[in-house]
Every structure is written in C-alpha cells, then in structure tokens.
Amino acid sequence: MNYNGKDFLRKFLPQVIERSHEDAEIWVADNNSLDGSTEVMKEEFPDVNLLENHFNAGFAGGYNMALRQIKADYYVLLNSDIEVTPNWIKPVIELMESDEKIAACQPKIISYYDRSRFEYAGACGGFIDRYGYPFCRGRIFQELEEDKGQYDDAREVFWATGACMFVKADVYHEFGGLDDDFFAHMEEIDFCWRLKNYDYKIMVCPSSTVYHVGGGTLPKRSARKTYLNFRNNFALLYKNLPKERLFITFFVRLILDGIAAIKFLLQGGVMDFVAVIEAHAYFYKNLPKLRQKRKALRQKHVSNIYKKNIVVQHYLGGKNKFSELDAEDFS
Hints:
The protein has helices at 6-20, 37-44, 58-67, 90-97, 169-174, 187-196, 223-240, 243-266, 270-285, 287-295, 310-315, and strands at 27-30, 49-52, 74-78, 82-84, 102-111, 126-129, 134-136, 139-140, 143-144, 155-157, 164-168, 201-212, 305-306. By secondary structure, the chain is α/β, with parallel strands linked by helices. The protein has two domains: 6-212, Spore Coat Polysaccharide Biosynthesis Protein SpsA, Chain A, CATH 3.90.550; 223-300. The strands form four sheets. Strands 3, 4, 5, 10, 11 and 12 form a six-stranded mixed beta sheet that branches. A three-stranded mixed beta sheet has the order 7-6-13, with no helix packed on it. Strands 1-2 form a two-stranded parallel ribbon. α7 packs antiparallel against α8 and α7 packs parallel to α9 (270-285).
C-alpha cells in the first residue's frame, strides 16, 4: 500500500522485486497519492501491477478495495517504507502451512535506522492488556528493546502488524477484511481479534526479518494520530470484548483516558487533549453503528491478553521489556 510515498517506492520497491518475484506476484495499490507516485510507478516500474484507488480510503479501506481485485492464496500487506531481506517470504508461508488454524503472521520488524533495535510498529509480535493497550515483544510504549535474539522463537501472539502482515486470502475475505471505518491505526488489532474470536491463531515468525522506517504517513507527534488511536481503540474493544468485560473495561478506560488527556494538556499538547475528547465523542455518536457490528460478531475469552494493566506496570512498576512481564499473567 502506498500513499504519497514515491521516494519510498524508488528506494524499497526494487528490493521487493528482486527478493520476492520468485515467491509472489507484486502489486502496488496507490491510495490516491498526490505526490506523483502513480507516475513514478508507470515510468520507472512499468512491469509491476498497479492498482489506483480513486480516493484515499485510508489504510483499511485502501487495502480492502485493492484486495477485492487480487486473487491469491495468501496476501502480504506491506507498507511502502519497508526494506525486505532475502528469503523473507518462505519461512512465514512454511509456518502458516504447518497449521490450518494459523490465519495471519508477521516477520520480525527491526528499525531501519537503528538495526540493533526493534521497530515500534510490530516489533516481534503484538499483544494487548485487559484494557486494550497494545504493546509488543520488544516494545512497551516508547521503550524499544535491542534485538539480541531473545525473541527468536516462532510463537502465537495477539496481533500481527499491518506494516507487514501475511494473511490467508480466503480468511481475509470471509471476515470482511479490515474495518473501513478505522481508516488507519489499530485496524490490524481489530482484525486479528476478530479472527481469534473464531479460534484462529496469529503468529510471529522471527526467522524472517524486515526493516521498517515507520511514521511515513503521520508524524509520531500528531493530534490526528492521537485521535485515531483513541477512537479506534474504543471501537475495537466494544466490538470484540465478551459481554461480562464491557462495563469494567470502559469504566477504567474513562478514568485512564481522562488522565492521559490532562497529561497532554499539562505538557502543552492542547490539540492532543482535544483529540481525546473528540475520539470519545465519535464513539458515543456512532454507538448504534458499533452495536450493529458487535451483534454480527462472536465474542469470547481468547488467549494472549495480558491480565494486568501495562500502563501501571510500565510507568509505576518500571517494566520496560516484554521479558520482564510474568508469563503467567497472559490468559
């Protein structure tokens, strides 16, 4: 998927072609870029399949529009700001072929700029805590661990990053793909949770590695990103939580989100403060629509949810590494 990423296309697409053409058919889906990306594709990569979305439907809607037009056994959702490595595809496919219940998988995601450390968006597999806060093997909030091979075992996780997600095509379409209304941010967590509610597995395959630039569309400090993260996090919780967990989860989140909003304000982040308020307003306004989505889905207790609050464990308990979390605290 590409949006205003012509420089990334020029930098990384040649490696994708060189290191993937024997294992995969390569498509670039452009989300109505305004920077000349499609012209670059047509002039410099005329042999690569190009799909042009006629409006920017975001990460979620953009992929859905594109993948409806592509027939395959597996899809690899790949950001344009990723450098792939030799033999990055086969290990993941072999792992997924070993168990029919594995629906999605990600490789190890390393920072493009600091190749000794994991990258924020996915690291070595994603998890959430009981209140919906996401974190990863190799990344808790802004703390990025050095990759010393400590997470090199292939294992089940809660979510696989949308920056580089392998997914079985028939499962993708059966579950309606990513939720268009998310636009961007956390749509892959929602998607993976939906799969887990139907007993599918999400995996990480560290024997495959890619390098991710990250933050290519929105800067890390962005009120728009704050809004999408808070809004979409509330939506995915409401859609997927078992009924008996709804009230307590949202009660606690109201308190924690209020604290986060005040913290933004005290740090001078007025627009981030406003973004949290707007995210909550969106949720309440769209509750009838979300209720219909919830009714159409199954909710159950699923594995690999952290039973404690990662906010408390990190900021008050000093837990900066995934390995410092007690394995018995994962349901």
